[in-house]
Amino acid sequence: MKVLITGAHGKVGRVTTQAMIDAGHEVHATDLTRPGFERKADDAPRYTMADLTDAGEAYAVVHGADAVVHIAAIPEPTGNPPHVVFQTNLMATFNVLEAAIRFGVKRFVYISSETVPGFFFPERDFLPEYAPVDEEHPIRPQDPYALSKHFGEQLMDAAVARSDIRCISIRPSWVQFEGNYEHNLGPQIRDASVLSPNLWSYVDVYDLADAIVLATASDLPGHEVFYIASPDNVGGYDFAEILTRYYGDRIELRDLDRTDASGISSRKARAMLGWAPHRSWRDYLDADGKALPG
């Protein structure tokens, strides 16, 4: 397929672009980064600089695509004014999706967020109702980032109701790659009391890219939402034990796939997309959260 990847120069976008090329697709990449004008490598994807909050630029890059993978976004709410986060994320999604509908694109993969339920950057703190968290968990976002991602998912619902497009929303857990495992996850591996709202969950960027490739090729009808998280938790702890130790009975414990289960469940993605993650923090870090040699 001819696949447009937005946000192609970001952490997830770069790896997804290569995974899509490796899967045999023709990639058109877009981002806010200026293009280079030197000789391109033979396997380099076509690249267009575009501001997707501008409808004309969105239409220009979507034209000709068979599928769209929409990754481009401000990735969290603390580094920009709230209205900038909300407007950028929502209008970019609206413009790209609207163009996809008008040009007859058949598959749209939207990179949403694990923050959608609302227990990440809230002004009034609250906890998940149960764990592992899955796609059925109630949604109560408060911050501009989670709101923008939630409304993005609602745009997918509206799109399939009024056109023949098929949509998949992916909610990745905290994305890690070779260069940030030790910095991000090391403290939790050494001490489970270093808490995070996603209940010790994470995902490797290469496993996430595999899920995005599967979603792009999927023929699932309508709009489906999938959490994507590694099956194990950060540190390899007994999940039932640490959940009770740090949260008491405030979070209901539900069935686990394994003793060291993640706080976010990806059962649905494994069952419906055939996603099979292959990477763990253990491939990068030792039991003390330090980088492995080499």
Can you walk through the features of this model?
The chain has 294 residues and is an alpha/beta fold. It has one domain: NAD(P)-binding Rossmann-like Domain (Rossmann fold), CATH 3.40.50.720. Helix content is 33%, strand content 15%. It is built from eight helices and eleven strands. The strands form three sheets. The protein has a seven-stranded parallel sheet, sandwiched between helices. Helix 5 links the parallel strand 8 and strand 9. Helix 1 packs across helix 6, helix 2 crosses helix 3 and helix 3 packs parallel to helix 4. The longest helix has 21 residues. It starts with a strand and ends in a 22-residue tail after the last helix. The model has no long low-confidence stretch (mean pLDDT 96).
CATH superfamily: NAD(P)-binding Rossmann-like Domain
Helicity level: 25-40%
- Find the count of extended strands (DSSP E, 2+ residues): 11
Secondary-structure arrangement, i.e. CATH architecture: 3-Layer(aba) Sandwich
Under CATH, the topology can be stated as Rossmann fold
In the CATH hierarchy, what is the class? Alpha Beta
The number of distinct structural domains comes to: 1
Mean pLDDT: 96
Q: What is the strand content?
A: 15-25%
* Distance between the ends: 36 Å
